[in-house]
Amino acid sequence: QVQLVESGGGLVQAGGSLRLSCAASGRTLSSGAMGWFRQPPGKEREFVATISWSGNNPDYSDSVKGRFTISRDNAKNTVYLQMNSLKPEDTAVYYCAASEMYGSAWWRVGAPPFDSYSWGKGTLVTVSS
Questions:
Q1: End-to-end alpha-carbon separation of the chain, Å?
Q2: Pairwise pLDDT comparison (30 vs 63), residue with the higher score
Q3: In sequence order, which residues have a C-beta less than 8 Å from that of residue 64 and are 6 or more positions away?
Q4: Contact 97, 37 (CB under 8 A)
Q5: On the chain, which terminus has fewer CB atoms closer than 10 Å, C or N?
Q6: Helices (H), 23-98
Q7: Counting beta carbons within 10 angstroms of the beta carbon of residue 128, is it exposed (0 to 12), middle (13 to 18) or buried (19 or more)?
Q8: Quick one: residue 15, left, alpha or beta (phi over 0 = left, psi -120 to 50 = alpha)?
């Protein structure tokens, strides 16, 4: 089982930037992917971004594409989410997720069941107008 710990959330003004980090421990990932979901207040949890643990296959939701960048550091078992040009609509609890069964290509289409992911506890991002 993989343990995930997010950090980097906070309060930022619209148009600003923030970088989230997710450190994995317990088991070193060698396959599958890691990424991010978010849950805005009063809304469903939604896919944000993902990247495979080997190779370089990032993918993003349409709402963040061009503004957010996901990256990874295999040596540190860590993934990052650089968020630029933040909007109030980006306000949400951001959850780190990992899947050893599903590569990054499957996340956007919702193929992996939610209970198949390992989850972090979440970090709150608030974007003020």
A1: 39
A2: 63
A3: 48, 49, 83, 90
A4: yes
A5: N
A6: none
A7: exposed
A8: left
